[in-house]
């Protein structure tokens, strides 16, 4: 090996050593150190190029460093970045209007991270239960699903069923009840007079792209309406085009009472999340009852406005539907005994391996990284493919060729 190449290799190792020395080890990343991104591609510090098939867990649906979102961010950064909500800013009203129009919502509450949007919605649903439904103080119950992923804060992990996420972090917030995902009759049975809401992901992302039976959300919507409880859809991952529709709820022609979006709301530039709802629920919040220093700040609003605009203008949602179908079709041609199932909706796709496959999904991901494709295993046996929504047919052909090779090796 030439000394120059060796020097470059040392660079990756040095970054990793430094990170491991000073950082908490709450992640187990693939050992690539990225320094640049454009569209579906990212480059590491040694100049190697990779196709990004994770899209920062669907936060960069619009592609890395989208020029129009970048422009909006730079322009805003030169004008005004933060006012706090103690004062108004000239971006927030426009974000509200544009987001309401786009998603057919009536009221918006802006936050930063996805977990904050989930925490916000829990507060709102409980308040609605006490003030509009007359639930006795302190008794409100929210129903959630097994294998859910809604974030990492204490209340949220308290109703997670992933032991690794919960272990030794208790005591937890009470008031949650867990039912199986995809089973609408279980929801019907679990509702009590104290139930105020059902919180669910339209497709469970972190659980491994688990798609519920057809008609599930429609039936869930009927039950929630009939029993007068709020339907809360966590679309932080499924929303904003990922599944081939603006919101995944559209696949079943329903509307949630409260919808959570985040991640791609900023196209990956900045943490921006929002609760989308109506006057009946969000109208209950009075000044001082909820807030965030950064929530709704002018930078976030300017970035989110641009991120939404390019999603529509550049037909990324339609592209996700078409390219998702094509990617899935091509992957289904992989005929390998280690594959248990290939499933997906839009560009949210998973390949699940049989239990006991040597090396599990991690081995495939590591082998793919060497061939220039970055993706991440979820749990032990599932590989998720979720490239930015700007991917084209020839990119998918390029990827599938390599994915087939990675499978040949096991
Ligand atoms: C990522 C995610 C969250 C949490 O978002 P953060 O920004 O990481 O806090 C919540 N719900 C779902 C469905 C997610 O995929």
In short:
The protein is α/β, with parallel strands linked by helices and 410 residues long. It is built from 14 helices and 15 strands.
Rg, alpha carbons: 22 Å
Q: Helix proportion of residues, in percent?
A: 25-40%
Which hetero ligands occur in this complex?
Answer: pyridoxal-5'-phosphate
The SS-based structural class is alpha/beta
At the fold tier of CATH, the topology name of the largest domain is: Aspartate Aminotransferase, domain 2
Largest sheet: 7 strands, mixed
What is the architecture of the largest domain at the second tier of CATH?
3-Layer(aba) Sandwich
Give keywords.
410 residues; alpha/beta; Aspartate Aminotransferase, domain 2; 2 domains; four-stranded mixed beta sheet; 14 helices; 17% strand; binds pyridoxal-5'-phosphate
